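Backbone-to-sequence.
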């Protein structure tokens, strides 16, 4: 996951870069999720252990996407409040 700067001290360019990095991360993570979905569709009879591994990877990725989004937006709010 990309680094999240401190919105109380970061300059505008750093905050813009953080937002762009978050968006890039989100796009890459979404591509990964799409791959997992494609595997699920193409291999419906996969072993339960593999299915669980894929499900766990999917869920971790969604959680990471949500976490980085919340962190960046919180720091952007802090930055914008200055």
């Amino acid at each position: 996951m990309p680094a999240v700067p401190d919105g109380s001290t970061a300059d505008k360019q750093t905050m813009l870069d953080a937002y762009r990095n978050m968006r890039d991360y989100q796009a890459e993570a979404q591509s990964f999720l799409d791959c997992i979905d494609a595997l699920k569709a193409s291999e419906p009879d996969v072993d339960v252990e593999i299915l669980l591994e894929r499900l766990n990877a999917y869920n971790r990725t969604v959680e990471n996407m949500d976490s980085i989004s919340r962190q960046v937006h919180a720091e952007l709010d802090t930055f914008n409040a200055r």
